């Protein structure tokens, strides 16, 4: 093969593999453009809209809205914030979010973009959540409509209500007994803006109610047989509390200068204490520090007014919170790493992108560099993390365009191109040496398996503070099923066994999903060994990193593209590429996609071979 022929094959393969975002993944991206099952593209739409208004390209200072998004005290019937929220809501709903979910997304991103949780004056009493809900046209409801994100199951807000109102009736939340108050005390300034309210009742009620509500959510999650990741119990505990407590109350000098601390902060404080959240959170890329109690309390204010978002709205909010460096600790979402999740979860770079745009005065290239840098640090497989970001950002740009999606594409483009080129070269060399296409994709999957073992062990060691080394001994389908479908697509019933050393102590786990995890949870197997939980955790993390590979299927599509460019029948190329990729063949769909990519590559190569007219 001549050098020119090789260059044409590689070019055709690279162009075909990246022809459109949908060909990069087995995830159903087209459905996401209208919010079916995931709100990742509506989140990008909202972020792009907010970025456009904050960094408007028009030179006139009247068009620069950043300094007008934090209005706290204004009697105007319409605030500058209304313009921003209305436009962002329309963009979000156009991308498929229903009204309450659109309101939640826009209010959340606007908060991190610089808006206060409050806007307006007491007479109007307008708050960010209500403004977003009104512009979205969502129905007003209470926090009872809230539900946690899906952690296998999801828990509605009812346990928080039950616990708080039972404690309320038992007079356990505040020392102040309403039964002893003379008339005309409660409800007026003698109470609400004086010592009894600001120094005693409001701080006690807010903090204690949020604690009780958060603890009830945690216990309910345990009762459902799931881990109580702390973010959502805290959010719901604070939200139910802020429905009860005077939401605009300020607190006495014991808590800070006049106007500095409000009832929402004490609700956030109680929720943070009960959930054992860290005292501060930091934005990825900028390292800006947020007081966790303030964030949770402010979101209590937002969520009480937002309407009734669905569980995918809650999941979108979880992923928005994945923009914090502490995401894994607070149970925020999957898109902060270290595991690469399905593309429907990739909202976690939107808040960092917005904050980085502020820091860099709208320079998308500087923002892109910062996003790339933290992605390279935070993931077991950072190359595929950036490929996944590129795919979803490009898909988002089919619906909406702006500085956030542009920065994400710039952050990931050259990494994606390198990933494609490297696989194309490897494939072409192996095919030229007589290796079968199935053996090529099997080799690529073997290489990724070894990489995940090596880098995953290092990341887990850093996260746990223990020396961890993990090697898979079996990765195959049929942990407990026998049907033909799961025999081919191992992600639906994964038989996973591995050797692991923890601080040089060796352990072997056999059939993680069907034996080891049920035995630990139901029979108490090895619960007396403090290392065993760590061994299960480590195996679960690295197994899921391999299971979720449907988000980026380059180990199948790029070899098929090279084979197609070399003359193999596209259908056969797709079939053989999927046959060999025993790990990338986690979920169905790659065969058909690879055949399409091979056909495109073949067409491109044919045109490259034609003489220029």
Written overview of the protein:
This protein is mainly alpha-helical and 613 residues long. It folds into three domains: 1-26 and 436-613, no CATH class; 29-138 and 308-417, no CATH class; 155-305, no CATH class. Helices cover 57% and strands 5% of the residues. It has helices at residues 3-17, 29-32, 40-54, 80-94, 99-113, 128-136, 158-169, 189-192, 195-223, 231-244, 263-275, 292-305, 311-321, 327-330, 350-359, 364-378, 382-396, 403-432, 437-464, 484-488, 512-523, 530-547, 554-565, 570-580, 590-609, and strands spanning 280-282, 289-291, 468-477, 494-502, 505-509. The strands form two sheets. It has a three-stranded antiparallel sheet with strand order 3-4-5. The protein has a two-stranded antiparallel ribbon with strand order 1-2. A hairpin with a 6-residue loop joins strand 1 (280-282) and strand 2 (289-291). The longest helix has 30 residues, at 403-432. The radius of gyration is 27 Å and the shape is globular. The two termini are 25 Å apart. Mean pLDDT is 93; it is low at 58-66.
- Judging from the principal axes of the Cα atoms, what is the shape? globular
Largest sheet: 3 strands, antiparallel
Strand order of the largest sheet: 3-4-5
Q: How is the quaternary structure best described? A: single chain
The portion of residues forming beta strands comes to under 5%
Instruction: List the domain count as a whole number.
Output: 3
- Tell me the Rg in angstroms: 27 Å
Gap between N and C termini: 25 Å
**Helix-strand string:** HHHHHHHHHHHEEHHHHHHHHEHEEHHHHH
In DSSP terms, counting alpha (H) and pi (I) runs of 4 or more, how many helices?
Answer: 25
Quote the average pLDDT: 93
- Give the low-confidence spans: 58-66
């Amino acid at each position: 093969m001549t050098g020119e022929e090789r260059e044409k094959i590689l070019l055709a393969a690279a162009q075909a593999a990246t022809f459109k975002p949908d060909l990069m993944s087995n995830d159903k991206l087209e459905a996401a453009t209208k919010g079916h099952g995931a709100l990742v593209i509506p989140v990008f739409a909202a972020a792009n809209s907010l970025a456009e208004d904050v960094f408007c390209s028009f030179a006139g200072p009247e068009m620069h809205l950043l300094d007008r998004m934090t209005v706290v005290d204004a009697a105007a019937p319409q605030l500058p914030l209304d313009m921003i929220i209305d436009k962002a809501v329309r963009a979000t709903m156009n991308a498929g979010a229903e009204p309450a979910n659109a309101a939640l997304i826009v209010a959340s991103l606007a908060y991190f973009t610089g808006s206060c949780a409050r806007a307006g004056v007491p007479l109007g009493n307008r708050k960010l959540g209500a403004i977003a809900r009104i512009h979205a046209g969502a129905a007003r409801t209470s926090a009872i409509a809230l539900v946690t994100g899906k952690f296998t199951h999801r828990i509605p807000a009812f346990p928080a209500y039950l616990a708080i109102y039972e404690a309320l009736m038992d007079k356990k939340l505040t020392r102040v007994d309403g039964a002893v108050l003379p008339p005309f005390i409660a409800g007026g300034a003698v109470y609400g803006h004086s010592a009894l309210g600001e120094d005693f009742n409001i701080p006690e009620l807010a903090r204690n109610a949020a604690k009780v509500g958060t603890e009830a959510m945690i216990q309910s999650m345990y009762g459902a047989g799931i881990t109580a990741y702390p973010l959502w119990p805290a959010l719901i505990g604070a939200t139910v509390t802020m429905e009860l407590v005077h939401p605009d109350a300020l607190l006495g000098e014991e808590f800070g200068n006049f106007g500095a601390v409000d009832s929402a902060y004490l609700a956030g404080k109680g929720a943070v204490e009960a959930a054992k959240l860290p005292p501060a959170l930091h934005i990825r890329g900028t390292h800006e520090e947020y007081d966790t109690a303030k964030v949770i309390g402010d979101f209590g204010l937002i969520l009480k007014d937002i309407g009734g978002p669905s569980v995918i709205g809650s999941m979108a909010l979880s992923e928005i919170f994945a923009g914090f460096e502490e995401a894994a600790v607070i149970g925020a979402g999957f898109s902060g790493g270290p595991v690469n999740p399905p593309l429907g979860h990739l909202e976690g770079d939107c808040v960092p992108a917005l904050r980085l745009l502020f820091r860099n005065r709208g320079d998308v290239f500087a923002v892109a560099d910062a996003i790339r840098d933290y992605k390279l640090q935070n993931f077991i497989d950072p190359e595929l993390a950036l490929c996944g970001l590129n795919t979803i950002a490009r898909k988002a740009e089919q619906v909406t365009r702006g500085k956030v999606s542009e920065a994400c594409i710039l952050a990931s483009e050259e990494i994606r191109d390198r990933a494609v080129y490297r696989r194309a070269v490897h494939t072409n060399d192996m095919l030229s040496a007589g290796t079968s296409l199935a053996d090529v994709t099997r080799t690529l999957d073997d290489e990724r398996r070894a990489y995940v073992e090596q880098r995953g062990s290092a990341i887990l060691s850093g996260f746990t503070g223990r020396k961890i080394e993990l090697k898979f001994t079996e990765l195959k389908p049929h942990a407990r099923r026998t049907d033909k479908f799961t025999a081919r697509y191992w992600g639906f019933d994964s038989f996973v066994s591995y050797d692991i050393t923890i601080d040089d102590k060796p352990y072997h786990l056999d059939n993680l999903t069907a034996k080891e995890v049920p035995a630990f949870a139901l029979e108490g197997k090895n619960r007396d060994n403090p290392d065993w939980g760590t061994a299960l955790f480590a195996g679960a993390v690295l197994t899921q990193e391999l299971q979720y590979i449907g988000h980026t299927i380059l180990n199948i599509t790029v070899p098929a593209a090279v084979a197609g460019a070399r003359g193999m029948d596209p259908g056969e190329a797709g079939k053989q590429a999927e046959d060999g990729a025993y790990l990338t063949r986690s979920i169905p769909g790659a065969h058909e996609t690879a055949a399409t990519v091979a056909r495109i590559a073949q067409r491109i190569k044919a045109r490259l071979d034609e003489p220029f007219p």
